Fold this protein.
Amino acid sequence: MQKYFSFFVILLMITFCSCSSENNKTTTIAETKDSIPAKENFATGQVIENLINLSDPSESYALYLPSSYSANKTYPVIYIFDAKGTGKLPVSMYKNLAEKYGYILIGSNNSKNGTPWDQTQVIANNLFSDSQQRLSINTARIYVLGFSGGARVANALCITNGAIAGAICCGAASPAANNKDPRSNYTFLGICGNQDFNYIEMRKYDMVELAGRPVKHAFIEFDGKHEWPKEEIMREAFLWTELGAIRKEPKLKNDAFINENILIYSEQIKLAQQTNNTFEVYNLVRKTINFFDGLVDLKPYFDIYKPLKENATVDKKLKQEEQIWKQEEELKSFYNSALQTKNIDWWKQETNSILKKTKSGNIEEEQMYKRISDYLSLVAYLQTTNAMQKQNLPASKMFSQIYLIVDPINNEAHYLNATILAIEGKDKAATAALDEAVKNGFKDNVRLQNDNTFIRIKDTEEFKMILKKINEN
């Protein structure tokens, strides 16, 4: 078993708080004073992309401080872990929410997919320590947020670290490290697109893994793929943490804030009722109860929810959902085997068949096959890169071709194809493949310029033109 994440040192809090801008249009929890003084001053209201860690200059993080930030107050903080270690991406995406609700956002530039857990622990420890020494943070309101592999990191940190109040996991849930005795005094919020290849994992984690544990949890589903949720979706995560803070410390209760937000959920429920969408009503009421439990009188919502638990339409929908999950898991297993046994022609035919099924007219089936399609893209990528790392050129070529077939508009598929062609000495074909990567959205100029695989063609006019296209984009 991997080592558990050691608790980072925190000072005792004098007053529990949550902070918000004085100019906020939305009423939030009032700011209070904490025992931890700010050690440095940083620009507020703007993203700082690369703040160097004082204890280890090889590590850095992106930072956003709300305009209300002051050394005389403390602020809740969300530490963010991106799958690719690009802290500025999620910090930039959610800075408006941080401004609205009065949060500090800190995005690691070092934690990324493929980093060993022991090293991830060190990165997280350094991140927590450095930021808490230099910023005015409410140490009772520390949250972690992650996407994909970053979500697994965030969840693992939370379940092993008593100083973290809650985890927000997007696009993945299973923690990066196991714990035989995980804590339960934290909150968990899962967010996932209905076309995300990890959708089933997320749903099961919410409905099964956490069902028998006293962890306050909820799940948010949105229309989308395996991606960071848009700002309007993430707004609910900030609301979730605010409500959790009130639930934990009742003296922070703000009736205006609570009523303002539960009204939004009530309107959504009414709309679903008016359109006779019984299953949607069931899900919305369930989410509302999870969000506002213990904060308002929920009897009107339980009066709707209890009959729906026995409703034939809801029961049928839940069983259909379970059947879809089973079918999807079986398909994934089948395609994993097919990657090792089926030829290119078979993959062309099968991909066309999958594409047709994503337009079948059956919403649940369409979403399932969209998830399958994205899953095939992921596993083809993993198989290709694994074969390349082992310098197995025949296998690399095979998996690369499958990657291009199952996801022809993925710029990484074209880039890896170009890499393999360059290794084979097919410079013109490699250049053409790079051009296709750019046409499909490849933008990493630094990666391309530093990739010595293309050293033979770097002085050609065609390669310079590719670099120019990237700069123009």
User: Anything to note?
Assistant: The two ends are 46 Å apart (CA to CA).
